[in-house]
Write a structure and sequence with these properties.
Layout lengths: L2 H9 L5 E2 L5 H6 L12 H4 L1 H14 L3 E2 L8 H5 L7 H15 L5 E6 L13 H17 L4 E7 L2 H12 L5 E5 L16 H11 L3 E5 L4 H14 L4 E4 L6 E3 L2 E3 L4 H13 L4 E2 L7 H9 L13
Parallel strand pairs: 1-10, 2-3, 3-4, 4-5, 5-6, 6-7, 7-10
Antiparallel strand pairs: 8-9
Helix pairs in contact: 4-6, 4-12, 6-7, 7-8, 8-9, 9-10, 10-11, 11-12
Length: 303
């Protein structure tokens, strides 16, 4: 068993592995404005509130906690005037999650897309890989146990992020968003589950999957296709169903209990790591973890 995969294999001895839920809405509930300051800047200005989100998910039953670093690459942060703080923000983000949770809860630090498009020439693969390398290195320095490349629609960008993250020596999970096409089974850039599985595995991912863009039911066929396309572990973090726009904001009406039933079907279809994305809260994770007994319940005390 390789060093890179040892953590993931250990976690999978008690399958499924319950991950966490949405971060942005939890931070907004603690005072993060919807526009203006990026959430990641709170790693420096309000670390105690970021820590609270991680702790709430761990106490709810998450065995894996992400980090408040989704848009922490230099390219995205520069649009808000924080580009020169990228390394500091990511190092702090990983360290906050690590501090917040017990030792037996793993920190899989988050890396999301850059927000610029390769296809239109806004950036190059080299520029992307440099930005992702800086971010990944800082996350490793902050104490992350692994890295999650998530919410990707462009396979070339996802592969650049994975390659950068793999160089840290940490396990890397790679996830795409499948929410487009007639059957809602492609990414916005037209990537299929099979293409994603092959491309992400070749780039060095230790696990692959999907997050955001779909509810549990919508991701059921994607889960099956990923399971057939790869022998790697499969990671799924669907939304709490499909949103309705109420007063200009996305609202999710799916209950924690309905979500947990949907996740159970994903596990039956081959998902190894399961949690939630948009619309989910610690209560969703609590109900989900309760259904899987002690394997989903963290023990021990925070640092």
């Amino acid at each position: 068993m390789s060093t890179t995969n040892s953590l993931i294999q250990t976690l999978l001895e008690n399958r499924p592995v319950i991950t966490d839920g949405a971060w942005g809405t939890q931070l907004q509930a603690l005072g993060l404005p919807m526009t203006g300051e990026p959430a990641e800047a709170w790693n420096l200005s309000h670390p105690e509130r970021v820590e609270q989100v991680a702790r709430d998910y761990a106490e709810a039953g998450s065995r894996i906690i992400l980090s408040n670093t989704f848009s922490g690459n230099r390219i995205t942060l520069a649009r808000h005037g924080f580009g020169d703080k990228a390394r500091e923000i990511n190092r702090a983000g990983a360290a906050i999650s690590r501090k917040a949770v017990p030792q037996n809860v793993s920190v899989f630090a988050s890396m999301g897309p850059s927000g610029v498009m390769l296809l239109s020439g806004e950036t190059t693969e080299s520029e992307l890989e440099n930005a992702f390398s800086e971010q990944a290195e800082a996350l490793a320095e902050g104490g992350a146990d692994a890295i999650v490349v998530e919410t990707m629609s462009d396979l070339a960008e996802a592969r650049a992020a994975v390659k950068a993250a793999v160089r840290t020596g940490l396990p890397v999970v790679a996830c795409m968003v499948f929410d487009s096409g007639r059957e809602k089974d492609r990414t916005m850039m037209g990537v299929t589950a099979e293409e994603a599985a092959a491309g992400l595995e070749e780039a060095g991912a230790s696990a692959i999957g999907a997050n955001c863009g779909n509810g549990p039911e919508g991701y059921l066929p994607i889960c099956r296709r990923l399971r057939e396309a790869t022998s790697l572990p499969v990671w799924l973090k669907p939304n709490a169903g499909l949103p309705e726009i109420i007063d200009g904001r996305a609202a999710y009406s799916m209950s924690p209990e309905s979500f947990a039933r949907g996740i159970e079907r994903l596990v039956q279809a081959g998902a190894d790591f399961v949690g939630g994305c948009c619309g989910t809260t610690p209560e969703f994770i609590r109900v989900l973890a309760r259904g899987y007994g002690d394997g989903a319940s963290p023990a021990g005390s925070p640092h």
